[in-house]
Write a structure and sequence with these properties.
alpha/beta, 12 helices, 21% strand, elongated
Length: 424
């Protein structure tokens, strides 16, 4: 069997270490947000649950059902569904549902009566995002309807959730206002006889900065995968290595135009190599003319506009051989956490650097890697990760290791477990 042309190596040990970090930081009150196929990492639910997460959060019912199909028995919450979503299947699969509007709440109640399964509902309030969530002006009416439907036995309101708009900016004045709005929403729900309630406002940034401390649950997604939106911690580990294979190489004279539009013109005789990755595989086209890759132990620039299926790397004096491996991005060396700034030119490019080259965020880079790239889950030692960031010879991926540190903190029962319908 031939090796994949392009490979996304998921460092399972790094995912576990990050999860254990947040489990300890939150006192075990951790929901692992695995939306968008685990932020592009694939099947990591088992790893995060073993490492300390107590429950799983996703957006759609379809994502929730996929998590269940993967064997997850822990509590699962889905929070971004239209009124015509397949709530009946969600209830049969013991999936909790977040609701932000009356139409969806009525639809959930209808599905509960049809299936004979009482729905576990989290009411979602908008505290400042201006997107999903019930507007504060309509919150009392939503709580009143929820109380009415709860009285019929169709559902039980077990939680209140919100999402902060500026928690990635420590000290932003909006944080205080949004926390107050959330506390008021919780009080309003309780005044209408709803509860006991699991309260959750903090996502990754607010969990790191402490902007929403004091509530019952933290929803952490990006942080599990080494991404710190606040740029304030060095405790997280990068979790991905993307490699590809040289298709062909050639020697070019001065004045050769490369790529669509001929934007790049060689200013000297040089060598180039063609790599079978492009914007269809997740390389952001906006990084054209800025990005570099790791070739034979040094950084080399990608030149010309990115194509759908390929990019070109200027390898200078090195004429590569077809089949050689090239590292597009990988983990930082030991001691350089995911939240740190620029790395030296003697290191593999990182996801954070690719995000900067494309004027975007790391979240977009890791979730855009396409399906033509093979996913491989592997546990490596920290020494292997350092070797990947500072290769001494070829650009092979880190060597698999039998060592699998879980770093699991003492077992803490997730606050979401008390929900009816969640019997796992």
């Amino acid at each position: 069997m031939t090796a994949p042309v392009s490979e996304l190596l998921v460092h399972d040990d790094a995912v576990r270490a990050n999860t254990a970090h947040f489990a300890a930081l939150t006192g075990g009150r951790l929901m692992a947000v695995l939306k968008a196929d685990g932020f592009g990492h694939g099947a990591v639910a088992r790893s995060v649950l073993e490492a300390g997460a107590g429950s799983v959060g996703v957006t759609s019912v379809d994502e929730a059902l996929a998590v269940r199909a993967g064997g997850v028995r822990a509590p699962v919450l889905s929070w971004l569904n239209p009124p015509d979503a397949d709530f009946a299947s969600a209830l049969r699969a013991d999936v909790g549902l977040a609701v932000a509007d009356p139409a969806t709440l009525v639809a959930v109640g209808r599905a509960a009566r049809r299936t004979g399964r009482r729905a576990a509902v989290h009411l979602h309030v908008d505290v400042g995002m201006g997107r999903e969530g019930c507007p504060p002006s309509a919150w009392d009416a939503l709580c009143a309807l929820a109380r009415e439907l709860q009285g019929t036995g169709a559902l039980r309101v077990v939680g209140v959730m919100g999402h902060m708009s500026s928690a990635d900016r420590p000290g932003d004045g909006r944080d205080t206002r949004e926390v107050l709005l959330f506390r008021n929403a919780v009080r309003s729900a309780r005044r209408r006889g709803l509860g006991p309630l699991v309260r959750h406002l903090a996502a990754t940034a607010a969990t790191i900065t402490g902007a929403a401390d004091g509530f019952d649950l933290h929803r952490v997604g990006a942080g599990l995968f080494g991404i710190d939106p606040s740029g304030t911690t060095t405790a997280l580990r990068d979790t991905l290595t993307l490699t590809t294979t040289v298709v062909s190489a050639r020697a070019l004279p001065t004045g050769t135009r490369i790529g669509y539009g001929g934007d790049h013109v060689t200013d000297r005789p040089t060598n180039t190599a063609l790599l079978p990755l492009g914007y269809a595989d997740g390389l952001p086209r906006a990084a054209s003319g800025r990005a570099v890759v790791w070739v034979r132990g040094r950084r080399r620039p990608l030149v010309g506009r990115f194509s759908m299926d390929s990019v070109v790397v200027d390898t200078g004096d090195d004429l590569l051989l077809p089949g050689e491996r090239v590292t597009v991005f990988g983990p930082r060396a030991s001691g350089a956490g995911a939240g740190t700034g620029a790395v030296g030119r003697d290191a593999v490019p990182t996801v954070a650097e690719w995000a900067a080259w494309a004027d975007t965020i790391p979240h977009e880079v890791v979730t855009r890697v396409g399906t033509r790239v093979a996913r491989v889950h592997r546990t490596t030692t920290r020494a292997d990760a350092d070797s990947a960031a500072h290769p001494r010879g070829d650009d092979a991926a880190p060597v698999p290791s039998e060592h699998s540190p879980s770093g699991r903190p003492p077992s803490v029962r997730s606050p979401i477990h008390h929900q009816e319908g969640h019997r796992a």
